[in-house]
């Protein structure tokens, strides 16, 4: 688009939007409804992904130290565990700490197990660099030697959890992509109706020598504006609902390891994403719709 004609194209786009009021309303509504579905699903899936990541990160490898292990042997075990690939952090929990945790969870009656009567083990808690590597680290830790009494990370249940979380992410991505293509289809068809009503105008412009791009630019700008305005509606709705429900939902999750994505910067990212999608698919919809009418 040449600079000297840019003003003319923008002016024509605004005039067309106002002149074709009902068609513009239909196109904006199509964008708004579709992007409301897309934005709501993206917000939901991003928070599900956050919760899934919290669940995955809560899965750790617990290495139980054999009863009677001396301090030197325990420190040697720590060194060997630190040498395992993909181990991110190591925490030590003594048998007394483990008993305190049990008493905190199940009650003071477990206080009967004190001193030598304490049946629990010293534990090294290993967190991996990637949740999917948990089983691999557990196998290496179990193979260290006799000072390791047992290794636990949840076994098949943890592996199943990782598979479910990955499936949820993949399905969500497919649905979002499908909705975006649906949005392009709906918008292009809605804009095509608008362009169809102006086909005679386009044909006259072609016959008097206007280039394809000279004709196309006002429609592309018009589609971008329709997409932008249509995106403002779902952006406002989603932002309001998320801000309204965030504190309430976080109240239910208080005391757990889980949480929702904080509104800042999450909502800023959603707003930028939906506005960008609206402008892009509005432009694409216009481009696809007008292509047929340029063949005069």
Write the layout of secondary structure elements.
Blueprint: H1 3-19, H2 21-58, E1 61-65, H3 71-82, E2 87-93, H4 95-106, E3 123-128, H5 134-142, E4 148-152, H6 155-196, H7 199-207, H8 212-253, H9 263-291
Antiparallel strand pairs: 1-3, 1-4, 2-3
Description:
With 296 residues, the chain is an alpha+beta fold. It has 2 domains: 3-56 and 161-294, no CATH class; 60-153, Alpha-Beta Plaits (2-Layer Sandwich), CATH 3.30.70.3040. The protein is 71% helix and 8% strand. The protein contains 9 helices and 4 strands. The protein has helices spanning 3-19, 21-58, 71-82, 95-106, 134-142, 155-196, 199-207, 212-253, 263-291, and strands spanning 61-65, 87-93, 123-128, 148-152. The chain has a 4-stranded antiparallel β-sheet with strand order 2-3-1-4. α2 (21-58) packs across α9, α6 packs across α9 and α8 packs antiparallel against α9 (263-291). The protein is elongated. The protein starts with a helix and ends in a 5-residue tail after the last helix. The mean pLDDT is 76. InterPro entries: ABC3_permease_C, FtsX, FtsX_ECD, FtsX_firmicutes-type. Residues 59-144 form the FtsX extracellular domain. Residues 174-292 form the ABC3 transporter permease C-terminal domain.
């Amino acid at each position: 688009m040449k600079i000297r004609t840019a003003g003319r194209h923008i002016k024509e786009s605004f005039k067309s939007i106002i002149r074709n009021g009902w068609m513009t309303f239909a196109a904006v509504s199509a964008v708004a409804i579709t992007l409301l579905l897309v934005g709501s699903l993206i917000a939901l899936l991003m928070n599900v992904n956050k919760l899934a990541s919290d669940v995955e990160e809560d899965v750790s490898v617990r290495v139980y130290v054999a009863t009677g292990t001396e301090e030197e042997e325990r420190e040697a075990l720590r060194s060997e565990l630190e040498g395992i690939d993909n181990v991110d952090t190591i925490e030590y929990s003594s048998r007394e700490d483990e008993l305190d945790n049990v008493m905190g969870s199940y009650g003071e009656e477990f206080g009967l197990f004190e001193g030598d009567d304490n049946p629990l083990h010293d534990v090294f808690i290993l967190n991996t660099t990637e949740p999917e590597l948990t089983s691999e680290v557990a196998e290496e830790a179990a193979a260290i030697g006799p000072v390791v009494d047992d290794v636990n990370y949840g076994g098949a249940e943890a592996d199943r959890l990782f598979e479910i979380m990955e499936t949820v992410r993949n399905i969500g991505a497919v649905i979002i992509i499908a909705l975006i293509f649906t949005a392009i289809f709906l918008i292009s068809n809605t804009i095509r109706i608008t362009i169809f009503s102006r086909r005679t105008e386009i044909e006259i412009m072609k016959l008097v020598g206007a280039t394809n791009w000279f004709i196309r630019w006002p429609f592309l700008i018009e589609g971008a504006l329709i997409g932008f305005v249509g995106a403002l509606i779902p952006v406002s709705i989603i932002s309001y609902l998320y801000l309204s429900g965030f504190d309430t939902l976080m109240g239910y999750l208080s005391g757990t390891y889980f949480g929702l994505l904080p509104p800042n910067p999450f909502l800023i990212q959603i707003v930028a994403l939906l506005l960008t999608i609206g402008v892009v698919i509005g432009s694409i919809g216009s481009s696809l719709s007008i292509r047929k009418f340029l063949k005069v």
